[in-house]
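Example record

One chain of 871 residues, shown exactly as stored in the release files.
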Amino acid sequence: MLRKILLVLSIFTFQIDAKRYVIDDIPGLRRIDSLYSIGNTLFINAQDGISEGSFYTITNGGPLTLIKHGDYKTGGPSEFFEVNGKFYYAYNDVSRLGHWTSLYNSLWVFDGTPQSSQKLADELVSEIRPVGNTIFFRKMDDANGFELWAYPVGGSSHMVKDISAGTPSSHPGNLTSFNGKVFFTATTPETGFELWTSDGTPNGTRLLKDINPGTRSAFRAAGVIWSDYTYEMQLDYYSFVEYNGEFYFVAQDGVHGQELWKSNGTEEGTVMVKDINPSGDALFAPSGYYYKPVMTVFKNKLYFVAYDPDHGAELWCTDGTEAGTQLVKDINPGVGSSQITELKEYNGYLYFPATSGPDEGVELWRTDGTTWGTVLFEDIMNHPLRSDKSSFPRELTVYDGRLYFAAVTALDREFCYDDPPYDCFPYFLEFCYLYSTDGTQGNLEKHYDFGSVYYLQKYLLTATSNGLYFKSYDANQLLHRLYPADNPPQFASNPPREGVVGTEWAYDVDAFDPDGQEVTISAVSIPSWLTLQPDVNGTASLYGTPTAPGEYTIILSASADGLSTEQTFTIYVKQRRIISLEVYNYDEQMYNQNFSVPRVTLVNNGPDTVTDVVVEYYFQTENNKVPVLQVFHPQTENIYLINVTAGVYKLVFNYIGKIIPPYSSYPDNSGAVVGLSYADWSTWNKYNDYSNNLQYSSTLNEKICVYTMDGILLFGTPPEFNSLPFADAGMDINIIDPQGAGETVSLNGSRSYDPDGTIVKYEWLYNGIVIGTTDKITYHFPTGANTVTLRVTDSKGGTATDIVMVNIMPYGTNIPFTLSSSVYSQGQFPVISYTVPPHIAGKNIVCHIQREWDTVVYPLPNSAGAQNKQA
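Predicted structure tokens for this chain:
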């Protein structure tokens, strides 16, 4: 079935419990190295046939968007974070070094569009972690080695502190945001790798606790960094895990070996939770083998994998106390380990791969937090001929209410000889599949065949709000997207909205289903003079001849696979007897931004006399302001305003009793002069006025309507009212600038709203340049009075603006004083006249008097605007 998405190469559909799903193949990428997601955006590091390390995105399930091309040596993007609506990431570009290294990263930022990419910090950047509006990271330079750096949003990147003074590196790692600070591991020659904290300032960057006293390290870092900054193997860093107001990590204090620790951010609050492995070996594996800790929060406890000599590596949990730190279950009884490599919470259970021994292999398990509730969930690889009974479930990912994962299974095959006695021998092939479950045992769903490949391949299962993405290992390493086919059909056509009595009206209806299903068009409500004739998939003809003037509401329905969408519109049928009436209009004050003077003229081009009509001119006000109507002349005309809905008005020219003879116009050039403005004479946005044709001279205007006295539409097309959005840029901001270098200010437009829809676009304008496109932004303003305009746009194109003043006022450190007397008297101070500027009223002002033998310092009384005060 043809789908109306050009991106799709092929489509695979399947159904789960009456819910359809679709898998699309996304072509264009030859090798996919990594996938990351934030909200509805997928970030892709891939080779695209042109270069390696190319950076692509997919937003809202749309097409591939190239952000940055790599070359044959680049490593591509990684470590994505979102701060204030912008994405920060590391981009690995090693082409300048002439060889590959995972250390050659730069810090970049962009807003989702290719042209917005901007480099913030060059070379050797990693371990990116946002804390509030500051991006912390590890960076190397020749003078200081690898140290802690920071980029305050809107500012510039800088080294926070040279922790290991001089060229030796402190190698900050494990960067974790906690209570508004960054916590991390770092090393110095005096302490080894220990726990540090920073608030972003040199003085606020300090050793939190020397857990393993002296030069020995509390933390392990596996790997070697060579002199050209390349790795033999990457340093094994991981983020600490926050739980119940503290963060947890693995450390050794020189007495107990590797154990579970926690910290509340203070030295005294950094303590070992429990000595789980009294033998002193590694907590997470037998001695000599090391891998990253597996930890997650589940049911108000911290679950983790720990090793002890009696049970091997098994599942444990803690409530933060020594007594509450317990083995959940010895899944592989005795000293053997259960081989848990990941934990994923789903639907009230914690799922993980584990083995109870060689007879079962590594399969999918789950726990409710109790010993008896820790059970084998699904034995996927149970083939009798296979010696290894493991299906190795991995990459556990929650999407659209289901748990997805990759796992291996075996399919039976048979080989038979072509010669007598034609013996046949059974055998099997291993295939890896994409599975999912709703938590019901024995009810696994198989979605995609990855093929007969090495069973520990990574498929990069990555969920966004618009789909589950993964890669396969065929010749092109295609990227795939799985998503529910629950999108309702959409109308692709717009109907004509005008009709004339006695003249046929027709509308070619067109609709489609985004999920490729058959679409049926039906009538929900149509007048008797209309006929709907369905055609092929998603098309139909609606036609008929109106017999009477009026407004007719039409409701059509497009249905596909149980889902439907309605299209509602109104046909305005005019009376045929007066087809010669026209309305001409222009704005006499088109050049004036604060005043609108719509001049409206009715022209009767036919032989019939026109009488008793009402003219309606429609406009909208900004932020629901109340307009002021001025009727200049003649005063005898019946002209008034009607508030249609929030922010929407119509200017009514009531010409009941007036006569327009054949081939004449009304009023003449001197009549019906009116003005529209606001009481405060603020800007009048004429582009929001439906009936304003934005002309300096009189032209035909079908957006002005003429009705008979009984409400029959004679001319024009009434608007479909869209209430304008309301822009609120917040209160004016006044800040003292002590350094004279400007200040970074946060602007908040989140109080803006749209009364009949949603705001789809925010624009903060400063000096005519857009400085932000989200409801909340930060920006560095120079000293002085800064005018910032917030412009919001609703889903129907309506706009509104608001202004906020950002006053960055200089701080006067030296206030000029004028001596009123130069007479010196022993034991007596001189009389001083001085003025206190208003912007420092209330500040402590100190006067320095230089005498021949010393300096006298004393405070001066002050008040706002004080003049000629005596001290």
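Notes: The CA atoms of residues 30 and 476 lie 5 Å apart.
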